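Below is our example:

___
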Amino acid sequence: MTLTCAADLLAPSSLPVSMPDFDGATPQLCLEALREGMRLERTRWDEIAASPEAPTLANTLDALELAGAELERAEAVFFTLVSAVGGEEWDRAEADITADAVDHAHAFATHRGLYRRLLALRESVDAERDPEAAFVLDDYLASFRREGIDLDAAAHERLHDIDQRIGAIEQAFGKACVDARTAGAYRMTGVDALTPELAAAGATLVDGEVRVPLTNYTSHPLLASLASPTHRHGLMRASLARANGSGDVDTRGLVAELVTLRDERARLLGFDSFADYAVDDAVAPSADAVRDMLRDLARRTQRAVAGEEERLAELARAEEGEDYRLAAGDWTYFEEKLRAKTFTFSSEDLRPYLDLERVIVDGVFYAATRLYGITFTPRPDIRAWSEDVRAWEVHNEDGSLLGLFLGDYFTSEHKAGGAWMHELVGANGLTGDLPVVANTCNFTKPAPGEPALLSWDDVITCFHEFGHALHGLFAASRYPSHAGTSVPRDFVEFPSQLNEMWAYHPQVLARFLRHHETGLPAPREVVDEITASRTFGQGFATLEYLASALIDLDWHSHSASELPDAAGVEEFEAAAAERCGVAHPLIPPRYATTYFAHTFGGGYAAAYWSYMWAELMVADMENWISEGPSAGIDQGLNRAVGEALRHGVLAPGHSDDPLAAYRSVTGRDPDPAAVAHRRGLEGTRS
């Protein structure tokens, strides 16, 4: 069916598993549907609150959960197209709807009628007889209080104004980050042809010079293979300088205004800082606890980095001369040299064995089948938002349909950077709707007829994002607002990071690590080296992450009077790195402030640390898997482990305390020391 009007987007889809229909979707059509969906949901909120009947689960909580069904359908189409397709029209549409979305959220957060009715319902729900309903009601009520339901009218009006401006800034910042990747491209002179490495990096030859677009991260992958120090250093400078006013894009003013507004918002709601606000609904107990954990790991990491630096400097002097001094752009280049000396096979040697098709089907899917008994059936007839998107039906072990999985793996011009999972249809215990989930990546698309060959980091991305997909597919909560990945941010990364471990499992490697031409398995020593290399270079990888996480936290731990204006953004960042113990001249943050979309584009504001807090649980859970009663069966790759993970931590969503779910599997709280061991840093004492 071709979408012809807003009503088509709001109506249930007739496609398999209620897969949203993208055929005919335009920005204008989506905007009309979104606004009508918001109107419908607000009308239903008012009706629920004004009902003369005594509140029951059916007429209050269930009704509230289902009130936004039409809006959710429109949002699934719209935000998929904004992020996975992009372009000026979709960017303008996103900017156009931002104010409406803020108004809509504000209308809910200040709806005292709904709050009072939920409060009355909670008094009648027996937590022992219906613990899930009681937990969800408590969470709703806490969210109302957290968003200022008790504020007076003037404070509510100011909060609304702040949220409107924050929404606009975050949208503008995200767009600027995408624009800056192209606008800030490094221009290589003296190169008259594209090497395979340059082509794989998306470089183009324009008017006799090579232009290398930037990636999301500071440390560009091309740095590992650039033999010229001039080009390495130039590419690193270009990466760090993006969006800082030295070119066509400047986000510093947005950052300065945003952190000031966030501070005001947090204090208006009764918190000492925005960092405290961000941690309030997390698994982590406090911002101080997060800060202490990250700084302790940073101390351990700096010691590991010192050892890595010494070895790299020796290689640099041997290649460039005794007077050569390492610069930030040199690290990954000489790290690859060290890898070549340490291991037989380089990153490029691995690529012929890492065919995307085989990685997904014989790696990611195979591991999921071994663990959970689920199977995957291709659905080439299902069309999505791009011809590159592929679809698979997912079935339980008994043959029943579990949901639909979509994979959108290749980059395109206006697509948002990075990789992510999102739900197009969420599992719904009230209606029986099955989940439709997607993984979206930015791998280089091969020429027609050629295989898509990945790096090992790309492989880990595939397993990571599918961990999120499993979280959505296995969702079994009664209430859709608390199902699947709708959990605290420092728990949402737990299933994804945990799923990475199966990429290293020998039986999984044996399935997907095969030459793309011959189909022959990689030599045994390659498998051994992949396992051994898991902790290689972790000093660098850990410190660049910790630098971003702690700088993000620092930005949001200061009062407005302590925060800089636009001209002082870079100075503040440098001082924050020093304060937090993560400053290193050779290892810049994974994301510098001016292109840190996680925190300034929204989603992970003052919460980039959540990846590491999740890793606390991951590292400890990996130990449980390797030590538990089922560990002797295929080194944990078995149905007993899968059932424990599925029903213990994946299926419940946020229908219970996440730590309680974790304990239900392991019988213990996670051990913080496990992180240092997992990253190979256990030999460095703080």
In short: Residues 6-109+111-147 form a domain with the Glutathione S-transferase Yfyf (Class Pi); Chain A, domain 2 fold (CATH 1.20.1050.40). The longest helix spans residues 287-320. The radius of gyration is 25 Å.
